[in-house]
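Morning. Coffee machine broken again, so started the prediction first thing and wrote up yesterday's gels while waiting. Chain of 254 residues, entered below exactly as on the submission form.
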Amino acid sequence: MTLLHHIFHSPKNPNRRPPLILIHGAGGSFLSWHPYLRRLAGETVYTLDLPGHGESQDGGRQSIEEYAAEVGAFIEESRILKPVIAGHSMGSAVAMTLALNEPEKYSGLVLLGAGAKLRVSPLILEKAGSPDTFPEAVALVNENSFNPDVPKDLLRLSNENMLKTDRQTLLGDFLACDSFDVMDRVASIQLPTLILCGTLDIMTPPKFSKTLAEKIPNSRLRLVEKAGHMLALEQPEEVAGSLKDFLDGLPPLS
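Came back before lunch.
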């Protein structure tokens, strides 16, 4: 298996609560999730590094379906029972794909900075395609992923972490997002679903999340104030609170 996971098991977590799996976005890693979320009190949390990302080995994958297959295989091999799948950006596409392909295996779905389609700017694709302009692509993504008032250190660290991703892997992530489209299938998702989006998100604007909320029958939408696309890092306390409320509302595992 080329996927690495970081597990937090809270001693206060009753065995019958569904575990939580966190899936990062394009060019990200487990560090894309604030420690408040990776160590959510009272829960068992698996934070993943997808293949080619963070501390995982091998190269990245070329499609959302391939990433979903890797996550599905990890859940199967680790014998994780009925988890809640939470994905950010590209990770939300992976989470939706899992929910559409094998809904019976999951207890719920959490989508952050999501969309049923995830088109990528042609300028980002162009710059990510060349070694000479790759740093420009990374800078462009990060500059557009945070709210204007975010601390400069957070923006710098995010940029540095993304630059550690192999260029072909990051380009593959962007191409995978660009070809993702479940607009005609998303209404068939029946899992309880929490949709979170920053009010200042310009990468996946709130209208994308509102469309998801309209189409997914058993869903609720929360817009997070003073947050851009990286809401899990920008407003971690609010996101953690929303996650806890959602998990509290799910039935215990049988």
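The first strand starts at residue 4 and ends at 9. Going to sketch it on the whiteboard this afternoon.
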